[in-house]
Design brief:
It is a single chain. By secondary structure, the chain is mainly β. The chain has a single domain, classed as 6 Propeller (Neuraminidase). It has no helices and 27 strands. Strands 1, 2, 4, 25, 26 and 27 form a six-stranded antiparallel sheet that branches.
Length: 398
Amino acid sequence: MGPGAGRCENSVRTVTGCVLVLLLATISSQAAGCGGARVPSGNSPLVESSGTGGGSAPALSHLATHEMQPGTHRPELLVNGDRLYLVVVEHLQREEKRVRHMGYTFEPGSGRLDAGFPVSCETEEYGQGADHRAVIVGDEIVVVYQSNIIDPSREYHGGPMEQYASSQSLLLSRFSVDGGRELFRGPVVERATDFEDDNFPDFCILPSGDRLLVSTGGGGGFKMREVDMEGNILCTVGRPVSRSGVPSSIGNSMLYGPDGRLLIFSSTHTPEGGNVTVATLDQEYNAVAFREFETPGRDDSFPTGVLYRDGYYFVGYGSRKDWSGSVEESPYSPYLMVIDATTLEVVADLQVSDRPGAGHSHPTLAVLGDRLFYAWSTRAEGPGSSAPQVLVEEYELK
């Protein structure tokens, strides 16, 4: 895939209005490292610093809903300096290329997108791109994505694509923040066929100094790989899932807390519903502390968007009150939970929208100045429409 290939015009529709005002506690931040050295101070891309706290509680006011074009899904919302980026699933035909993921620069306020750049295309070698996660590292957009070679003998009837795959690969690609020029693409894991040992849906990643942490399913639990920026695996650790540790191998997110320790946000899955959880991991990726945030009468899942700002964790996740059916029959709605980073008490928990989510809604978050952005997947409105569509909610933090 050549740099800048397959560019096309896109637009975002913006719906303005003040939907809610939520009082939050004051927030403050500091950069973090893991194990004392992995993330240099001041270089954690998921930490936004805006003071030392101790002032009056700010208000979170909804300003606008920005709508991407139908057919977009699973947004990764990234911030670098004064710019925001979106990396989404989007299936497009560009000349001879079947694009599976696209990247865009997103303009706050107006919600306008640039022409975009292809992030992944279908290939004979690795098949079709599926789930992905993205981060900013220095002046690069780094994307890790699952790519499946589909078994033509398996009849498609909806659901996750890996159930139709003969092999799964995990690939890493890097792009310049200016213009989306492709800098590197290569495999982390090539064409895995034993899905009990290696399974790559709904994984999560986190920059850690000069490497990435990549957490995937596998081996009956989760696997943590340390990977360099050319996809070379430096080490792999397998750990079990546990109700009192990391309860799920998928739909998680990772973050370095203000004390420099590694956190993994996950969710329980029981007949009584699910709850968001957070575990502290030591340097060997063992869970050494755990907290579950109970919401009786609800099924909470996939806390895929987390950030720390001024003493609080902001967690984007999906929730539903009826979990008797599939996610299509009983869809998740997007929620935002705000947790005191010192006491681990929930100080706010709000439903972001009453529109149904696509899949688990797959929210991600970013803060730019006094704005909080919450990106998530819904179903496009319209008669007979079943296409996913990314929405970006814009809030003012006062």
